[in-house]
């Protein structure tokens, strides 16, 4: 009972949705399936591949550094989603549950989380560049823009705080 009460808050529900998205669609199994079975030249194929953007992996031929960076990006997306859901005023100032401001606060939190997670993980690359950081942040924000509506829907109806 205490577990379900904690996720009735807008930040809790949005963070749980972000965690599920990253765990399921960021998994190596889904990422491999999307790469092998979708056409990036179609809108549906592009979107299915985009879902795997904050991927994580635990078994790869890549260097340990690149594995940690990929995992860090996935972790930061979830952590920064929680942070931005608490910081954005839409869900905090809404007087009624389920208002459109909660939806947009959740959506925008995921856009910011994706952009900042990509920007921060770029700092850990072997040769980080400003252009690389801008491109990565753009990819993260694109992910948040096209997937963040799910977080927005998850935050609808949640309480504003942890009271």
UniProtKB/TrEMBL annotation:
Keyword list, A-Z: Membrane, Transmembrane, Transmembrane helix
Entry keyword annotation includes Membrane: yes
Keyword Transmembrane attributed: yes
Protein name: Uncharacterized protein
Organism for this UniProt entry: Pseudosporangium ferrugineum
Transmembrane segments: 12-31, 67-88, 100-120, 140-158
């Amino acid at each position: 009972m205490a577990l379900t009460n904690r996720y009735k808050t807008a930040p809790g529900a949005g963070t749980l949705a972000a965690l599920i998205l990253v765990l399921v669609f960021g998994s190596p199994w889904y990422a491999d399936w999307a790469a092998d079975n979708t056409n990036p030249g179609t809108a549906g194929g592009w979107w299915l591949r985009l879902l795997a953007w904050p991927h994580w992996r635990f078994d790869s031929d890549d260097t340990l550094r690149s594995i940690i960076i990929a995992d860090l990006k996935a972790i930061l997306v979830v952590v920064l989603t929680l942070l931005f859901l608490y910081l954005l005023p839409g869900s905090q100032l809404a007087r009624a549950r389920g208002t459109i401001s909660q939806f947009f606060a959740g959506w925008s939190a995921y856009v910011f989380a994706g952009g900042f997670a990509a920007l921060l993980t770029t700092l850990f690359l072997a040769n980080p560049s400003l252009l690389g950081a801008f491109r990565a942040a753009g990819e993260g924000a694109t992910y948040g823009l096209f997937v963040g509506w799910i977080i927005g829907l998850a935050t609808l109806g949640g309480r504003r705080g942890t009271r």
